[in-house]
């Protein structure tokens, strides 16, 4: 048992070194890094600016206030930023397979998923992360609600669950590279499209759209259902409170499933040579 | 002049071959357009107060945005970027051609050819299935086409400016990512510009970015009357001229002080 804990800590330390190397290399191009991070901040910031302007024009979104939507926005932004920061290493995966460099990873005494993910820890995602945290902070204050310890824990769990969900999606996107040596751009619709969708309350969308983002890609479990519990409001979609409190777990399950699919792809992997 | 026309048409025809690349983003764009229209629909059903634009207009505006998306200067010529990185840009300076105009011709092709490839199917699909309306009159349609030509010239100038900035920041990631983010916001891709607060309208209509998408789209919708096309074109061309002059000055400075590594 203590051996396994030792192994686990060892892996964490190794991940830390990967991150350190990646961060140092990105900081070499300081001006570029600052511009990149700023551009991420502006991109996410302008999305929220649009929402703020719309609330200025319409006053509410189907009964939801700006502060409530800001809570949803902040939660999903932070989840996505965390996932993007950690797992974008998988973007380079198709190139690894094409060049045959993936074979080198297979020879190393560590899990392949870990190695691919750890290759690149994208510093620029700080832009979205900082903005997400700022919006979340503003929402927490503006909502004028009692933040009990269980609620804070639920918020944290929801954000982590959302991050796991997005990580799972990125892993799946890369896993497709095992079968077609290019990743499919369609996955972008569920990741970026998913973030855009989840920034607003799920209740405003058409039923078929809602079903997709609850059952197929369970984004609703990343922020919408937990938010219902946090806000203490009755869910127009009729979900029971117990489900709302447990929904962050779904993100973790999704990631576990995605990693299983990755393992399947690994078993069938035939190198293209180098 | 004929040399630059030749460069433009050669590049244009080459880019028209990238049909697979044009098809690749299509599904994503459809999805995106759908999400945006659903969100606007939900907002419009949340309040009955009169708005600067009606919902059908906003829906058509969103789909116009998706159709013309790649006209916005979101990328630079990959060949030129590679040239700058490797140092072979020095060969470009030896050519008996004005470098700015050469790059501008390429930039113009880069903006217009992919836009043409993507716009036609998007108009077809969004027009048939997703509520995109045709222009209310022939005059509005003609005005829109003229304004779009102006937008292309402006977009070419911005693209060339970003390309020139690569001569300073070798890794190229910074300005070429920051400017598109800013451009999208002020061109009306986050929210149609008329829906921004009234106090912001003066700034939004002054900046060049409105001329890239917002004002041509509003000509299409009839939100701006067809006679307004002269004002729109004037605004676009004035900014284009200013950005061309800025670009030429920046390029002259860069080539005087350039240090080529390798190549």
Could you explain the architecture of this structure?
The complex is a heterodimer of chains A (274) and B (263). Chain A has 274 residues and is mostly helical. Chain A has one domain (2-267). Helix content of chain A is 73%, strand content 0%. Chain A has helices at residues 2-28, 30-58, 66-87, 93-99, 102-107, 112-118, 126-142, 149-175, 186-198, 207-216, 224-231, 241-246, 248-267. Chain A is globular. The model of chain A has no long low-confidence stretch (mean pLDDT 83). Chain B has 263 residues and is an all-alpha fold. Chain B has one domain. Chain B is 70% helix and 0% strand. Chain B contains 12 helices and no strands. In chain B, helix 1 packs parallel to helix 7 (99-129), helix 7 packs across helix 8 and helix 8 runs antiparallel to helix 11. The longest helix of chain B is centred in the middle third of the chain and has 31 residues, at 99-129. At the A-B interface, helix 2 and helix 9 of A face helix 3 and helix 9 of B.
Overall pLDDT level of chain B? 90
Instruction: Specify the helix fraction band of chain B.
Output: 55-70%
Percent range for β-strand residues of chain B: under 5%
Cα gyration radius of chain A (Å): 20 Å
Helix fraction of chain A by DSSP (H/I, runs of at least 4): over 70%
The succession of helices and strands of chain B, N to C, reads HHHHHHHHHHHH
| Helix vs. strand class of chain A | mainly alpha
Number of continuous helical runs of chain B: 12
Note the overall shape of chain B.
globular
Task: List low-pLDDT spans of chain A.
Answer: none
Q: What is the tally of beta strands of chain A?
A: 0
Number of domains of chain A: 1
* Head-to-tail CA distance between termini of chain A: 40 Å
Sum this structure up briefly.
Chain A is mostly helical.
């Amino acid at each position: 048992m203590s051996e396994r804990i030792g192994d686990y800590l060892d892996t964490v330390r190794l991940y830390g070194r990967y991150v350190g190397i990646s961060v140092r290399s990105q900081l070499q191009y300081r001006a570029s890094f600052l511009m990149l991070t700023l551009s991420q901040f502006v991109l996410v910031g302008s999305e929220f600016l649009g929402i703020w302007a719309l609330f200025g024009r319409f006053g509410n979104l189907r009964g939801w206030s700006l502060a409530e939507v800001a809570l949803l926005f902040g939660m999903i932004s932070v989840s996505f930023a965390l996932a993007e920061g950690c797992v974008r290493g998988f973007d380079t995966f198709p190139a690894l397979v094409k060049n045959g460099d993936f074979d080198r990873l297979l020879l190393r005494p560590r899990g392949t998923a870990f190695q691919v993910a750890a290759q690149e820890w994208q510093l620029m995602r700080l832009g979205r992360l900082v903005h997400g945290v700022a919006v979340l902070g503003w929402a927490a204050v503006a909502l004028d609600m009692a933040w009990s310890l269980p609620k804070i824990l639920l918020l944290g769990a929801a954000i982590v669950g959302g991050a796991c969900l997005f990580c799972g999606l990125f892993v799946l996107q890369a896993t497709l590279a095992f079968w077609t040596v290019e990743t499919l751009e369609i996955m972008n619709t569920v990741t970026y499209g998913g973030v855009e969708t989840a920034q607003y309350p799920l209740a405003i969308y058409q039923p078929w759209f809602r079903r997709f983002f609850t059952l197929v890609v369970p984004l609703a479990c990343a922020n919408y259902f937990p938010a219902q519990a946090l806000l203490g409001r009755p869910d127009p979609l009729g979900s029971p409170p117990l489900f709302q409190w447990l929904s962050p777990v779904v993100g973790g399950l999704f990631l576990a499933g995605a990693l299983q699919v990755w393992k399947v792809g690994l078993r069938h992997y035939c190198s293209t040579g180098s | 002049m004929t040399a630059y026309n030749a460069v433009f048409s050669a590049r244009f025809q080459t880019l028209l071959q990238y049909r697979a690349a044009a098809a690749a983003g299509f599904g994503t764009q459809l999805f995106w357009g759908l999400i945006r229209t659903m969100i606007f629909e939900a907002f419009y059903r949340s309040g009955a107060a009169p708005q600067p634009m009606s919902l059908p207009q906003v829906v058509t505006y969103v789909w116009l945005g998706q159709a013309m998306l790649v006209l916005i200067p979101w990328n630079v010529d990959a060949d030129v970027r590679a040239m700058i990185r490797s140092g072979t840009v020095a060969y470009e300076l030896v050519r008996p051609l004005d470098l700015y105009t050469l790059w501008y011709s390429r930039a113009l092709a880069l903006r217009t050819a992919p836009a043409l490839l993507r716009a036609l199917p998007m108009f077809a699909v969004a027009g048939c299935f997703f509520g995109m309306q045709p222009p209310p009159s022939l005059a509005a349609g003609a005005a829109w086409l003229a304004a779009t030509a102006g937008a292309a010239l402006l977009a070419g100038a911005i693209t060339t400016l970003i390309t020139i900035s690569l001569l300073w920041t070798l890794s190229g990631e910074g300005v070429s990512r920051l400017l598109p983010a800013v451009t999208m916001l002020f061109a009306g891709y986050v929210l149609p510009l008329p829906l921004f607060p009234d106090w912001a309208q003066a700034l939004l209509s002054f900046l060049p970015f409105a001329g890239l998408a917002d004002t041509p789209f509003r000509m299409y919708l009839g939100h701006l009357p067809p006679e307004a096309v002269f004002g729109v074109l004037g605004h676009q061309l004035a900014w284009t001229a200013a950005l061309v002059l800025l670009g030429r000055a920046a390029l002259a400075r860069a080539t005087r002080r350039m240090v080529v590594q390798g190549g």
